[in-house]
Each structure stands twice: as C-alpha cells, then as structure tokens.
Amino acid sequence: MEFLTNFISGVNSFVWGPPMLTLILFTGLVLSFGLAWMPIRRVGYGFRLMLTKPETSHPGEIAPFKALMTSLSATVGVGNIAGVATAISLGGPGALFWMWMTALVGMATKYAEAVCAVRYREQDEEGRFVGGPMYYIRKGLGDNWAWLAFAFALFGTIAGFGIGNAVQANSVAVSLETWGINAYVTGAVLVVIVGAVLFFGLKGIATVASAVVPFMGILYVVVGLIVLLLNITAIPAAVGLIIQQAFSGDAVMGGGVGTAIAMGIRFGVARGVFSNEAGLGSAAIAHAAASTDNPVRQGTVAMLGTFIDTLVVCTITGLVIVTAGLWQVQDAAGNLMYQSTVLTSTSFGKSLAFGDEFVTLIVPLFAFTTILGWSYYSERCLQYIAGAWAIMPFRVAWVIVVFIGAVAADQLTVVWLIADTLNAMMAVPNLVGLLLLSPVVFSLTQEHFKSKDGAT
Q: Which of 17, 141, 60, 3 lies closest to 421, judged by CA?
C-alpha cells in the first residue's frame, strides 16, 4: 500500500506540475484578453442578472440563481478551509496572492465554460437539459473530437466518487467525531439525507443548494469578518506580507528565494483551481440546465462562482490565517505544528472564543453540499457514456460510497490522490475544448453586449 501511495503521489505531482498549471493560466489569459477582461468589468452586471427573476418561457430546468448555487455547492467546500491552509503552510502567504491571480483569469474560464455549455446543450429522452464539456467538445468541435469528450466524461464519473463523495463524507465523519458522534451513525444519516435529495434529481439538489449554500456562505463570511475586525490593525501588514512573499519568497520554506516563489505559485494556483474549479469544466454541467435563452447571460452569472469562492471566501480564510501568524509555527522536530483544517480552525480560535468549534461545525455543511453538487456532475458524465438508464443505478452506488467514505477512517489517502489526479485529467480535455471554441465565445459575447440587453 505504501508503494502504491508513493507511486500515485508521484503521478499526482506530475499532472499538477508546471505544464498543467501553465495550461490553466494560459487558457485563462487567452480568454481574458479575448474578452477584453469583460468578466472583471461586468461583475456588477453579473450580480444583477443573478437576482433577476427568470422568464418562465425560457428553456431549462432550474433558475439561473439555482444553477449558480448548485455549482457553488460543489466549489464552496473543504477546499476553502483546508485548501487555503495547505497552500499557505506549504507555499507561504504569497500563495494567497497567486490564488487571487488564478481567480481573476479563472472568471473568464468559468464564463466561457457556461457560455459553451448553454450554447451546445441538448435534451435527453426524458426532456432534461444536459450539457457540459463532453457536449460542447463533441458538438462544437465535431465527431472527430468525440474521443476527447468521452475522456472528460470518464474522468468526471470516476473522480466524483473520490473527491466529491468518499473524501467529503470522511471529512464530515471526522469532524463530527470530535463531538462524540460515531462514524457509522454519521454515515447512516448521510445516506438517508443524500438519498432523499437525489431522489428528486437536479431540482432536489438545486433546491437544497439554493437554501444551504447562501446560509453557510454568509455565516462563514460573517464570522470570518468578525475575526478580521478583531485583528484589523494586523491586516495591512498581512496584505503586505502576502504581496511581498509572492515575489520575493521566504528562504526558510523552500531552501532558496527562487524555490520559495515557485512553491508559492504552484500551491497558490493548484489550490485555487481545486477550490473554484475554473478550468475543470464541472460547473458547466450545472449551468447547462439553467432556464435561459442566452448563453452569455448565464456565463455572466456563472463567473460569479469563481469571484465568490476565491476572491471572497478563500480571501477571508487566508487573511485569518496570515493575521493569526500560526502558519509557520514548528514543533520540536522542526515540522509545521498546524496544517490543513487544523490550521484554519486554530487561527479562528486564536481570536474568537468559539472560532475553533465554529470551523469544526461548518466543515460538515461544506462537505455535505459538495457531495450533492458532485453527484450531479458525475451522474451527467455517466449518462453521457451509458445513457439515461444508468441514472438510478448510479444514485444507489453514490449513497453506498457515501457510507463507505464516512466509516473509512484514515484509509482514503490513495482515494484522494487518485481523484485529485483524475481532476487534473478532466481539465485537459476541457481546456483544449475552450481554446478551440474561444472564437465562438468571443463572437457571442460581442454580439450580446452590442445588443440592447447587454448594454444595461
């Protein structure tokens, strides 16, 4: 098992290495320049669209707001707590700066994904709207690219069971065990709740997501802001440290300034993508089902997912960690004393009496919504491969894996690594598709913003 873990870890480091991170940033920059940085300039327009009541005559299954909440249910998760902490503990405070940069170009990527998803979506035999990278690659690029679409769907199906299911269920169980709740009880409760939601399909997931995601997101932001207000005098120095280390690094962390900067970029970009999923193509699957007749309008709503996830939620986590100053504390052996979720919870607890307990309690909510969001992504990926008949068997298998993940204790390291590797392999087909379809995205965008609707 140790050999397998080390082998997969090596593969994971390769697929998330410089070539992948370069491809992600390159795609985001190409789209950002081609769109004249429209996603950044039109954030306010996106929020207005998000809050606008959709026309009932528009084709689709769920409101644009619910589509956004469904995608956020999968992205606003443990990555916002553990992912940011990991980036800072391994890459230094400068990693947060590179998370910001990834998000700024990632907004264009997420926008393009949703535009293509709505533009090339289909209706299945039961009238459901289906779409995402597998559809826009095949329909937009032609049948000669069908193998690439199939590859995305295959990777998305398998990856979901790991990173979007078993690992998340385990996070819920581990978190609640600190409160004396047995993992088997947690697993059984999760099976019942998740199974009940999945019974109603996308509408059930979207309804729960549109209620839970805003609640948990606003609650986390409010508590985080309280912590930052208590440490308001330390914020200017923290921001200065973040920017300074993004370009000068810390020799203690990497054995040299150059190495430290490289580590900051690597972990900042990788954890940023892990958190907001811009480039993976997963969120496009949810936005394809939105009630809209305009790809650009939905794309403008979709890009808010990256803005909210990274530039708001991850920023608050990162600033709490950096102002607390615990990211570099070492034990007697020279190892980092606080890492992952523990670093975040301890940083919250340093300034707020209930901060540690708050993070421990919010983790299950974050992980639960991720399980729901990824269930839809993987279900649609499998449907693309096998057809609609596979939906019910998939849902049964999904809830079974939820229970296994909850009671698997610390035996999910290999599962996590495999799923993380497959996430990277999902990104490759999607990014290639977006680059080749970028002229379509640019054309639709220019046409929309020249119209009366886009001028508002």
A: 17
What gap in Å lies between CA 231 and CA 81, rounded to an integer?
19
Q: What is the DSSP string of 83-122?
A: IHHHHHHHH-THHHHHHHHHHHHHHHHHHHHHHHHHHT-E
Query: Which one-letter DSSP state was computed for residue 234?
Result: G
Average pLDDT over residues 305-315: 92
Positive or negative torsion for Cα 115, 121, 380, 8: negative
Evaluate if residue 254 carries a pLDDT over 70. Answer: no
Beta bridge partners, 336, equal 330
User: Which residues have CB under 8 Å from 324's CB, separation 6+?
Assistant: 231, 346, 347, 350, 351
d(CA 13, CA 307): 27
- Asked if the model's pLDDT at residue 223 lies above 80, the reply is yes
Is residue 343 within 8 Å of residue 326, measured between CB atoms? yes
Backbone angles phi, psi at 171, to 5 degrees: -65, -40
Q: How far apart are CA 155 and CA 378, in angstroms?
A: 9
**Separation CA 83–CA 81 (nearest Å):** 6
Non-local CB neighbours of 386 within 8 Å, separated by 6+ positions: none
* Residue 268 contacts residue 277 (beta carbons within 8 Å): no
Q: What percent of the chain has pLDDT over 90?
A: 47
**Residue 62 confidence class, pLDDT cut points 50, 70, 90:** confident
CB distance 64 to 54 below 8 Å = yes
Summarised one tens digit per residue, pLDDT across range 67-121 is 888 888 888 877 788 888 888 887 889 889 998 998 999 999 999 999 999 999 9
Residue 393: predicted pLDDT: 94
Distance in Å from the first CA to the final CA of the chain: 58
Provide CB contacts within 8 A for 184, sequence distance 6+. Answer: 406, 407
Please, what sign has the CA dihedral across residues 109, 215, 162, 195? negative
**How many contiguous H segments (helices) and E segments (strands) does the chain have?**
24, 2
Residue 376 sits at φ, ψ, to 5 deg, of -70, -40
d(CA 391, CA 401): 15
The rounded distance, in Å, linking the Cα atoms of 307 and 60 is: 24
Tokens representing residue 64 in the block: 């644009």
Instruction: For residue 165, give the amino acid letter.
Output: N
User: Given this model, what pLDDT does residue 372 score?
Assistant: 92
Q: What is the rounded CA–CA span in Å between residue 102 and residue 158?
A: 26
The DSSP symbol for 121 reads -
Distances (CA, A) of 430 to 85, 385, 423: 27, 16, 11
